[in-house]
Each structure stands twice: as C-alpha cells, then as structure tokens.
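Dear colleague,

Thank you for sharing your sequence with our group. We've completed the structure prediction you requested, and as agreed, I am returning the results in plain text so they can be pasted directly into your records. Please verify that the sequence below matches your submission; if there's any discrepancy, let me know and we will rerun it promptly.
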Amino acid sequence: MTKESQNPIIIYEDAEQAVEVRLDAAQETVWLTQRQMAELFGKDVRTVNEHIQNVYSERELAREATIRDFRIVRQEGSRQVTRAIDHYNLDVIISVGYRVKSHQGTRFRQWATRTLREHLTRGWTLNHQRFEENARELEAALSLVRKAARSPALDTDSGRGLVDIISRYAQTFLLLQRYDEGLLTDPQAQPGGALPSPTEARTALDGLKTELMARGEATELFARDRGDGLASLLGNLDQSVFGEPAYPSVEAKAAHLLYFVVKNHPFSDGNKRSAAFLFVDFLHRNGRLLNARGEPVVNDVGLAALTLLVAESEPANKETMVRLIMNMLAKEDL
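Please find the predicted structure tokens below.
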C-alpha cells in the first residue's frame, strides 16, 4: 500500500516491512539508497553494493543516468544531520532484484509498476483520451488509404506507390507521435522467437564482414568480438526469470537485440551496423522480416533511422525505445 505526503516520498509496505521510496513522476521512476535496497531484498549492504558495481562494470546500465544525490536528514548519535546520499533509480533496483533472485524483489517490482502507473496516469488522462480519439481517426484514414492502394481502379504503378508511401509514413508518424507523447504501450506480440546460437551469429557476421571488406566498406576490426560480449548478450536474451522467459515474444527479443548490441558495444567496431544486421537476421530466422503483404516490416531507411535513434537515446528512455521498436514490428493480424 502507499501513503502520500506533500514531498515526493511514498511508503512501500510488505507484511512487516516498510521502506520510504522517493517517487519521481517526471522521470517515471523511483529512488532508493543502498541501505533501503538491503532492507527491501533482505540482504546486507555489502551484497547490494557488489551487485550495483557489477551492473555498472558490465555496462548493463549507465551510472550517471541512474544515480541521484538527495539530501536527507538522519540521526547520528544525539544529532540530526543533513547529508547528500546516493539514490538509485528503478532500473538499478530491478537489476539488483534479478541478481539476488529475491521474492521480496518481485513483489516490489509489481508494486512499483502499479504505483507509478497510478501516479503518472492522473496528470494526463484527458490529454490521453483526446489523443487516442485523434489516433483512431488517423488509423481509420490509413485503412482507407491502404484499401485504395489495392483497388483495381488505381492502375498505375506510380499511383499505387505514392499512396503506399503515404500510408507507411503516416503509420510511422502515428507511432512516433505516441512515442513523443509517452503513450506507447506494449503491442500484442507473437510468443517465442528462436535466437541464433553464438556460433550461428558469429558465422553470419563473418559473412557480412567479408562482403563489406570486399567493397572497401569495413576493416578487420569490423564486428571483432570484445571478450564474450556477444555470447553473453544472446544468453541474457534467452534467460528465464522465476520460470518465465525474460523476453517472451519475437518482438521483445528483436527490440532488445537491436538495443543491446547498439548500447553495449560487444564489438571493437561497427556495432550499429552489426546490430541492424543481427536484428534483420533474427526477424528472417523467425519468419517476421516481411508482413502479410510481402513488404519488409522495416525498410532500409527506417532501419538506419531506428538504429541511430537507439544510439542517440538516453539510457533512462530504454523501455520507451523498446516499446517503439516492438510497435513497429507488431503484426497487423495479431
């Protein structure tokens, strides 16, 4: 349950446990100290600190985007003193929770997600409703445009092509508008998705490297492994959490594959090109590279733009970026 006060602090209570949590609605996150995380997960502070350092050293998260100093008053002996204490956001809390594999951590994540949704929804419910009405109108218009594009009455290739371009760009605009407004939600998705093995991915990348080098578009450094970064990344995408797949759908795996290869830099050079290639390769392996009309779900220009958008995005916007990619991949008939 939660108790609200005038300052941005809420109380998380689970059985006999109570932890003060700072809610940051503007950043869509919450903040805890190491001591509070230790209380939350039933671990000592040293263990929590070790997990946090591993999160940063493995580049799972960016330190500067996930830590904030808050000045808090605490009792030290007979004195009350104000000190600046490091607080860590929800991304770090969840990462630590997965690492300690704590039942308490699962309950907290469920609570935090529900609480954030309640707080963040209150401020823009009317805007959300207004935008969704406009979105439905735009989607209806897009449906008419697509129908016109398939009509026998439109008998020139140029006419069909022009209408098709308008349809595709309008749909992309709709997704980007929802992205800008913070209204994107997870789309209906196709469960499963077979990832390549590290060996299969390595073989595919070597083939790409050979072609690029033959055209003078890459050097020996292209897609060269930095340690076991690629194998670890693929292993993480295929992992289970509490008996359930961490990334349960084709869309989720594809979106995170693109995001993690771009952001984690598993290669000495060519991470963005390698990310785009592995993204397309994964979609091809799972029969999702083309839509029901035989068109690429993301064309070359769109893929390049999406890859650059991921590269330029802030780590704090990771979940929004992933939802954007998943929406672009969503099957129309799901």
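Summary note from our side: Strands lie at 9-14, 17-24, 29-32, 67-76, 79-89, 240-241, 244-245.

Kind regards,
the structure core
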